[in-house]
Amino acid sequence: MNMKTSNRFMPLIMAMCVVIGILIGTFYANHFSGNRLNIINSGSNRLTNLLHLIEDQYVDKVNIDSLVDQAIPQILSDLDPHSVYISAKDAQAVADDLKGSFSGVGIEFTIRKDTIRVQNVVQNGPAKKAGILAGDKIVSVDGKPFVGKIVTQEEAMRRLKGPKDTKVKIGVIRYAQKGVKYFTVTRGDIPQKSISATYMIDENTGYIKVKSFGETTYPEMLIALAQLSQKGFNNLIIDLRDNTGGYMNSAVQMANEFLPKNKLIVYMQGRKSPRQDFRSDGHGSYQKIPLVVLINEGSASASEIFAGAMQDNDRATIIGRRSFGKGLVQQQLGFPDGSMIRLTIARYYTPSGRCIQKPFVAGDNKDYEEDILARYQHGEFFSQDSIKHHGPAYHTSIGRTVYGGGGITPDIFIPEDTLGMTSYYKTAAMTGLILQFAYTYTDNNRLKLNNFHEMMDMVKYLDTQNLVDKFATYADKNGLKRRNLMIRKSYNLLNRYLNSRVIYNMLDEQALTQYLNLDDPTVTTALRVFKNKAAFPKKPIKKNKK
């Protein structure tokens, strides 16, 4: 090729080179320099790739674990109110709540003025064996001071809990003694009881308070029933008020004790979960005993399974107020780092076919979380006519009408007692002043109170101590101005609350429950039901058509 020919084709060659260069540049720009973003926009694992991109290229150093801990709860909250993420540091505490035991020192405590105050010591527990007493103030743990702003519920649990057979050195200040006393406590298994009270409420009626449904609830129930059998009970009250639930299987096992063979207890079903029925096997030992179940707005989940099974099978009379309304089933899934999620996989249904899950809007939990307050403001706590049922009516085995879509509605409604309620009482209760005074009074009078081992004996003594007046003086010095007219109007409420806290501080949870039940209108109604032989619901009378 000569020079003239070469010059003639040169513009064309240059143009082609420019075009090829642009194409190559565009290819590299799209497929290499922007490769991460394309993967994020089109791949199925976008969240993982986004985190890698942040870790590789973000302008500042980022704690990816912390970012995940914040992102996952937000994702789950867009599904439903009960799909949740549990971080690794919280997972053990959550498991302990339902497991039935944990490893620790065996004390119940309260935090007051930035100091741990030992409220109760578990009988035969590690702390008791070491010599720690109720009323002791914990001021150091393992040789390090533990007072002031650092003292929180979470930090106290972290320091006092630990593996079984490990030791912890605890320094305490004891009332009326000088200096710090030190105790070396060998941690051990501390039982977590889900049944907090079992006793004969009258000569014929047994009472069992179930505060949660954990791994040990069913065997605890069998022991409680055996104890009542020895005392000759002919009627039974099961109190599920403020029981927020737990394991569904525990509720099913418990229901099985009271139902004849092949009765449907509950069934669950979801998009990827085929229907699964849970039925009674006929081996229950208490299939015919008259039964009353107590519920309120704090009764949820497994509590509602049990109450719904008893109601739909016409096995018990349900007394109280409408339950919480949680009808979603969660499956627990763990991650390698110890964190976990509880993912909703199904809904559960009572035997009549009703789902008692109250309405919710995915991604917007505000109304759901404030539902109980809305019920109160709407007047539902005070009038059965104010209850709003969502969804159709259903029918029990003998044709009684029941409702779903928002909790279990009781057969007999008991309004919240507002007699004697004043703004003074509300402030005293909500600010914690009553709790603070009760603990201070207990601590200052522990030697005298130690003489009373029975609830009624202690009540008789406390009734001579004019606690309401002493509290009013204490409260006045701590910011709640004395209001004599309101105090007189709320006297019974104040006295009941004060007595109950001192009884709990000195005795136990069963003594507290027994005291509160003395004048409880829900319990009184249950006893009246047994007296009228109405514990077994009756078939509704059909009206003749004319």
For this entry, give a set of tags:
546 residues, alpha+beta, Pdz3 Domain, 3 domains, 19% strand
Can you walk through the features of this model?
There is one protein chain. α14 crosses α19. It is built from 21 helices and 21 strands. Helices cover 40% and strands 19% of the residues. β15, α10 and β16 form a beta-alpha-beta unit. The chain has three domains: 101-191, Roll (Pdz3 Domain), CATH 2.30.42.10; 195-330 and 343-413, 2-enoyl-CoA Hydratase, Chain A, domain 1; 423-507. The chain has 546 residues and is α+β, with helices and mostly antiparallel strands.
Quick rundown:
The chain is an alpha+beta fold and 546 residues long.
Shape: globular
Radius of gyration: 31 Å
User: In this structure, how is the largest beta sheet organized?
Assistant: 6 strands, antiparallel
Mean pLDDT: 87
Q: Considering DSSP H and I runs of 4 or more, what fraction of the residues is helical? A: 40-55%
Task: Please count the helical segments.
Answer: 21
Tell me the span between the first and last alpha carbons.
Answer: 116 Å
Domain unit count: 3
CATH topology-level name of the largest domain: 2-enoyl-CoA Hydratase, Chain A, domain 1
CATH architecture of the largest domain: Alpha-Beta Complex
Determine and state the CATH class of the largest domain: Alpha Beta
Low-confidence stretches: 26-37
Query: Going by CATH, what is the homologous superfamily of the largest domain?
Result: 2-enoyl-CoA Hydratase, Chain A, domain 1
Count of strand segments: 21
Alpha-beta classification: alpha+beta
- What amount of the residues lies in strands? 15-25%
